[in-house]
Each structure stands twice: as C-alpha cells, then as structure tokens.
Design a protein that fits this description.
Length: about 230
C-alpha cells in the first residue's frame, strides 16, 4: 500500500458514498439549489480538508453547510458562518484575506488547517452518531498527516466529541471524566491542546450570543499556545 498523503486522502474523501442518507441529501441540494445560487455549479460531494499541511493549528467543525461548502467545494466556505470564521482568521494572521467565497478566490491559510467531523452536508445540519463514526477515519488520517499540530480548535460540541473519540482510540491519554465543552475550554494532551470554540453560526452571531471578539480570543489563544512551545 502506498504511503498516505493529503492528495490520496482527499481523493478518497471526495469519492466517498458510505452514508446513503447524506449522499441523497447532498446531491438533492446540488440539483435543486437555492434561488440565490441558481446559476452556480454546486460541488455536491464530500468536502476535503483545507489549509496548510504544515499547520500547528487544526480546526475541526461539524459538517459542510448545504449551500456553503456543499456548493463551493471548500470547507467552511460560502455561508455566513464562514464569513465570521475567515474574517477572524485573517485578523489573527492565519489567513491572507478575510473572505472565503470559492475555491479559486486566492485564499491561503498559514499555520492553520480546517477539517470537519462529517464531510457531507447533512439534513438539518444534524449528522447522526453513526454517520459521524463512519466518517471519522478521515479525521484519524488527517491527524496522522498533520504531525506538527499543537492546538486543535473544535467549533462546537459535535466536533469536540468526534475529536475526543479520535484521540482516545489513537491511544492518547485523556482526562476522565471528559471536560464539558465550552468556549475557550483548554484540555492539554500529548497530541496538543484542545481548545473549545462556540460555533459562529448565523443565529448565534446575529443575536449577539457570540461576538467577533469572542471568536478572535480563541485564535489569539491558539497563537499564544503555539508560541509557548
């Protein structure tokens, strides 16, 4: 078997059809489209990770948005959540520009890599535990390839739980009981510091439950942690 690589892994991700419910949904969304994007060619497939292969910061989200990454083909791209995420990454110095709208928009990440617990857009933005577990080998392999990672930011509790299972099954010693997920939660491990971040969803940001300074604080803390090592 050839050695693993990002190219090989991403090709396998894109070709995956392991979850019938997710396959049907992502392809239905790509056919019917949203009126605002009726002229777009939707990606409509699983979405691979994106970023710097030498990153010291890994960001793990939930899943692609139906009309975001499922449309554009780039993780966390093309929806309101991504607007806040990439603007924050730009302010803190992880992105060369504050927007991410398409795969050919010139965006580059430095020292950061973005992944997700599930690679297909799920109905209602809610993957099942079985779908999460079926997809997790891709996260396992990314963790192995991203061997310089020192901080793992989890966007929301779903990503936190998926990451915890991946580290546990890889033999990483973890505290018991598992700390409750929260914003700016820090859990030091031999694989790196887990850093919790509330998801920058449109609902959270518009209602003021989450703010840009709250998001920036996470990535500034990630920067501090990588500098300390």
């Amino acid at each position: 078997m050839p050695s693993d690589s990002f190219a090989r892994l991403n090709a396998e991700v894109v070709a995956c059809r392991a979850c019938p419910r997710l396959v049907a949904w992502r392809e239905e969304v790509a056919r019917t489209k949203r009126a605002a994007f009726r002229d777009d060619d939707y990606w409509g497939r699983p979405v691979p990770g994106f970023g710097d292969p030498s990153a010291r910061v890994l960001i793990v989200g939930l899943a692609p948005a139906a009309h975001g990454a499922n449309r554009t083909g780039r993780m966390c791209t093309g929806d309101r959540s991504s607007d806040w995420l990439y603007a924050s990454l730009h302010r803190v110095g992880y992105a060369n520009q504050p927007t991410s709208v398409s795969c050919d928009d010139g965006l580059e990440l430095k020292d950061a890599y973005i992944s997700a617990a599930v690679r297909c857009a799920p109905p209602g933005n809610k993957p099942t535990p079985a779908e999460r577990d079926r997809c997790r080998p891709y996260l396992d392999r990314e963790l192995a390839l991203l061997d310089r990672v020192e901080v793992i930011v989890t966007l929301g509790a779903f990503g936190y739980e998926a990451l915890w299972s991946a580290l546990r099954d890889a033999g990483v010693e973890l505290p018991r009981p598992r700390p409750r997920f929260g914003h700016l939660l820090e859990v030091p491990t031999a694989r790196g510091t887990i850093l919790g971040c509330f998801h920058p969803s449109q609902q959270n940001m518009f209602t003021g439950k989450r703010t840009e300074p709250m998001l920036d604080a996470v990535f500034m803390r990630a920067r501090e942690l990588t500098r300390a090592r």
